[in-house]
Amino acid sequence: MRTRSKKHSRSINESGQSSGFLAMTAIKPGEIDALRAYLEGFRDRGERPLDKVSGTHMARFVIVEKFNCKPVYKQRRAENIACASLAFSSNLDGSIDRYLDVLCEQLQPEAQEIWGRCVGSPATCEGKALKDYLKHNQIDCGFFYAAYGEATVPKVKAALDQRERLMAFATEHQGVPAAELQQAFIEEFA
């Protein structure tokens, strides 16, 4: 993993206690449609497999078939990819190494169905072999910003839960006299 400079010890993939991970893997010829169907199936079935990977703030899979190089985007130069690729990105708590250890353990059998369709993937997409494969295909984020850089996933979820409780309380207690409202608030949140 590259760092900004010798005087900065933090990776360009870090912001606060959070890290950003991006890996781009070429998809095997003939596997694009099957991979797309598998990934879209999560949404269609209401599944969220990356919820099993603790420390995940947000993650996504994107199939990139080509780059859009229209002149209107004023790119310095046109960029092309040799074949369709799978981009996997995640905003996560802590170090990328620890996160990948959890992902490679908890995301079975999904990992086999996903990265098993990619060029150069290990025969069994799990454990150290999958971690090494993903790290080999890692692309530095360039600029990584975490909206809640110091807050872990559990802290963010607790804050959102508390907000929901407070909103429900406020809605339920509209028009309640001040003394009664104060007592109800103490009983609910103390």
Please name the CATH architecture of the largest domain.
2-Layer Sandwich
Strand line-up in the sheet with most strands: 3-4-6-5
Name the structural class.
Answer: alpha+beta
Radius of gyration: 22 Å
The overall strand count is 6
Q: Uncertain spans, ≥5 residues at pLDDT below 50?
A: 1-7
Number of domains: 2
The coarse silhouette is elongated
Estimated share of beta-strand residues: 15-25%
Largest sheet: 4 strands, antiparallel
CATH class of the largest domain: Alpha Beta
Average pLDDT number: 86
Instruction: Kindly report the CATH topology of the largest domain.
Output: Alpha-Beta Plaits
SSE succession: EEEEHEEHHHHH
With helices defined by DSSP (H or I, 4 residues minimum), what is the helix count? 6
Distance between the termini: 46 Å
Explain how this protein is built:
This protein is of the alpha+beta class. It folds into two domains: about 5-135, Alpha-Beta Plaits (2-Layer Sandwich); about 155-190. It is built from six helices and six strands. Strands 3-4-6-5 form a four-stranded antiparallel β-sheet, covered by helices on one side. Mean pLDDT is about 85; it is low at about 1-5.
